[in-house]
Amino acid sequence: MADHTTPPSDQLAATALNDDVSASTVKKHQFSDRVLIRSIVSRPDGGAGLAGQRVRVGGWVKTGREQGKGSFAFLEVNDGSCPANLQVIVDASVADLAQLVQTGTSVSVEGLLKNPPEGTKQKVELRVEKVIDMGPVDPAKYPIPKTKLTLEFLRDRIHFRPRTNTISAVARIRNALAFATHTFFQEHGFLYVHTPIVTTSDCEGAGEMFQVTTLINEAERVEKELIKNPPPSEADIEAANLVVKEKAETVNKLKSDKADKAVIKASVAELTKAKETVAKLVERSKLKPGIPQKDGKIDYGQDFFGRQAFLTVSGQLQVETYACAVSNVYTFGPTFRAENSHTSRHLAEFWMVEPEIAFADLKDDMNCAEAYVKFMCHWLLDKCLDDMEFMAKNYDKTCIDRLRMVASTPFERISYTEAVELLLVAVKEGKKFENAVEWGIDLASEHERYLTEVKFQKPVIVYNYPKGIKAFYMRVNDDLKTVAAMDVLVPKVGELIGGSQREERIDIIKDRILEMGLPLEPYEWYLDLRRFGTVKHCGFGLGFERMILFATGIDNIRDVIPFPRYPGRADL
């Protein structure tokens, strides 16, 4: 029970004292019998204030070396909670040092935190009193040596690459950006909606989709079945029909002879069984090897979903159904593109963040996109600075400055027409682009990067694109030549976000679908949103991996997703 007689000033002093005590203690992880290394070394004092505390830590040896003619060993141990390692000192009397010092060895150790000698880099070190567990490594076979490894090398050892400093830092940055994404939209009143992975709609109208089908598996199963158990011949079916005829005659005779009910019932059961046998034989006789066809085309009516189905390229169309009912929504999940591209900017499986806002127009869309990107930049600077410093040191020395610039600078906003005019001026002044510049083109990455890196040197939002290069669902402007679309361009990657105000007018969107050579039938449900209670709304999509490329300065998109899928590779 609280002591209500304590003067307020004394209560404040007691609180301050308790804070001091808690600041010099370190808590165990709630679901593990250990202390996270981050909670030791990432303190403002580097862990120095924890000297004298007994702790248990677990992690993997980054480097290890025996010292003092084998009397003790220094280990650099990391548990993935932060980029920094904890220096651990183990005496030969405590454990077999030869096994402990090998890179990749997992250890769980208990000991006393101590201040190292003055002049050393570390602020705190752990003197081990007891080795609880150890997962040894054969250094001759371990595929991740402590030498510097290329990211290309690591892609061939996908299950081990999280043990490297770079990939673990990318994982923490990716985690932080995902947390920031949910925080931003939740704090702004958006509802998180899970859209389907399997879809029957092509959002982009590009046709580069992975098909989902069981027809091939079923065809293989039928083929094996037919080899093992050939289909019945016409003679087999005819013989079975004769049996049915005989059984039917027997039943009729028993009934006319007014035989015992039990005898008639048994005879009817035999007739029923004979009919079932005929039905099975007829069904089996229809089995044909190969994929089923109808009118010379694949019969998708016999497929699992009764129609063609694909892996989604976007959750946008589906999430619009919720935007047109509960106002502000977003989806965040994997999307797929069967594009046979081997560039450093393409993946077959990637993640998209796709918000949708009801009762909002293109300006609102641009405002939301800018606020979201800035929020993520602030979040990384506030929550992930140690990992960002690692990236600045090893990959892109400008990455932290780039985050600060984007977080604090108003985005430039120009129309597509103005963007083309600026590019044409650059060409006249001697700038050479691989892709020709003219009104009507889809801006190439080199154009986008020129605008954001050279011309404005900050993020740029380009809006009102030609309708001929944009999707059917984007709202047609009054000039009938452009649509209310916008792209957010940032240094390092070019386009980071693509969005638009959606076309809410039923007649116009129907015409747009037909203009693009798409059938109306698969989109009837989408058109219903315009037929019944149509509403002005907008949204955008952010390529999550592109955001990580932008943040980290890493060059290849295959290195910022845990398990990259691209042509010829789908490991694990």
UniProtKB/TrEMBL annotation:
Pfam families: tRNA-synt_2, tRNA_anti-codon
Residue span(s) of domain WHEP-TRS: 236-292
Similarity section: Belongs to the class-II aminoacyl-tRNA synthetase family.
One Gene Ontology term from the biological process aspect of the record: asparaginyl-tRNA aminoacylation
Protein name: asparagine--tRNA ligase
Reaction(s) catalysed by this chain's protein: tRNA(Asn) + L-asparagine + ATP = L-asparaginyl-tRNA(Asn) + AMP + diphosphate + H(+)
UniProt keyword annotations, A-Z: Aminoacyl-tRNA synthetase, ATP-binding, Ligase, Nucleotide-binding, Protein biosynthesis
Span of domain Aminoacyl-transfer RNA synthetases class-II family profile: 329-562
Gene Ontology MF term list: asparagine-tRNA ligase activity; ATP binding; nucleic acid binding
CC annotations in GO: mitochondrion
EC id: 6.1.1.22
Listed InterPro entries: Aa-tRNA-synt_II, aa-tRNA-synth_II, aa-tRNA-synth_II/BPL/LPL, Asn-tRNA-ligase, Asp/Asn-tRNA-synth_IIb, NA-bd_OB-fold, NA-bd_OB_tRNA, WHEP-TRS_dom
Organism: Dipteronia sinensis
Upper taxonomic lineage: Eukaryota, Viridiplantae, Streptophyta, Embryophyta, Tracheophyta
